[in-house]
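Q: What does the predicted 3D structure of DUF8129 domain-containing protein look like?
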Amino acid sequence: MSHELPIPDYDQLSLGDLRHRVRSLARDELAAVLEHERAHGNRTPVTEVLTARLAQLDDGAEPSGGDPANTPGAASTPRTPPVSPAHSPDDNTPLRHGVAGQTPARGRP
């Protein structure tokens, strides 16, 4: 598909976010999203949400108010800052067993 989907950041949305955003789509917009999903990811839970919403629209449900283009973008996974050497633990590699001079005498004279 060369045209843009009616839901911004569609491919980055969680299933819960997608479930809420599809409620504002008209039937033709929802059908375009379903077609895109089947052609690309074809994720079963996503196609189930989309087909269930299509069935609701076919049964007389109306799209809810709001424009999905105005919704905030998908939340990205927070980046964990790298650990600096100042916060790293000391290099305290445990002693290897059986290495002369590194194993405690344990009661030997």
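A (community wiki): The structure tokens above were generated from the sequence. The CA atoms of residues 93 and 102 lie 12 Å apart. Residues 16-63 form one domain.
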